[in-house]
Design goal:
about 0% strand; globular; mainly alpha; Rna Polymerase Sigma Factor, Chain: A
């Protein structure tokens, strides 16, 4: 019997120490993944709580076909995509605000406050680069974006990405290849413009 089998038995029996271990182990990673979709730490924190509520409520249905981490990531990706769609609808109804109701320009200023020791022009360039990359990633088709985020930011191996996305290894390789091509295309204009200045 593997360590995962022991963990699942404990979780299914309602062992609180097993739940605490699971949340402590994956909480930061789940928030990070959710934030890659939502670009809002408060929303990501809130959504991570929803992810673990679902994990706890549905652990009895977990068959152990994949690693428990893969299953948690799958729940996080699905919930992130659903929340993202809901927030996009809200933003269309109330333009000019982010999901928390803060005006976008205000959020940009406060989010860079921790880098105040850097030169202002360098700080601005970094912020512009991050914003351009974020916008380029957001333009990717849903499957490409998910594969790219899991690979680039969560550093999951291709095999685990395939399990999270419930697809084949070759499909993941193809999605990542197309995602990189699309990112290059989306960022080309931004890079060319910056080289001229």
């Amino acid at each position: 019997m593997t360590d995962q089998d022991h963990l699942i038995i404990k979780l299914k029996s309602g062992d609180e120490s097993a739940y605490r271990w699971l949340i402590e182990t994956y909480h930061t990673r789940v928030i990070s993944l959710c934030n890659q979709y939502l670009h809002d730490p408060a929303e990501a924190e809130d959504l991570a709580q929803d992810v673990f509520v679902e994990v706890i409520e549905s652990i009895h249905r977990f068959r152990g076909d994949a690693a428990i981490a893969t299953w948690i990531y799958r729940i996080a990706v699905n919930k992130s995509l659903n929340r993202r769609k809901r927030l996009a609808r809200k933003k269309r109804l109330f333009p000019g605000t982010d999901s928390s109701g803060v005006h976008e320009t205000e959020q940009t200023v406060t989010s860079t406050g921790s880098d105040a020791q850097q030169r202002p022009d360098h700080q601005m360039e970094q912020e512009e680069d991050r914003k351009a990359l974020k916008q380029a990633i957001d333009k990717l088709p849903e499957n490409q974006r998910t594969a790219f985020l899991l690979s680039k930011y969560e550093e999951l191996p291709y095999k685990e990405i395939a399990e999270v996305m419930n697809t084949s290894l070759s499909a993941v390789e193809s999605l990542l290849f197309r995602a990189r091509l699309n990112l290059q295309k989306h960022l080309k204009h931004y890079l060319e413009k910056n080289m001229q200045t």
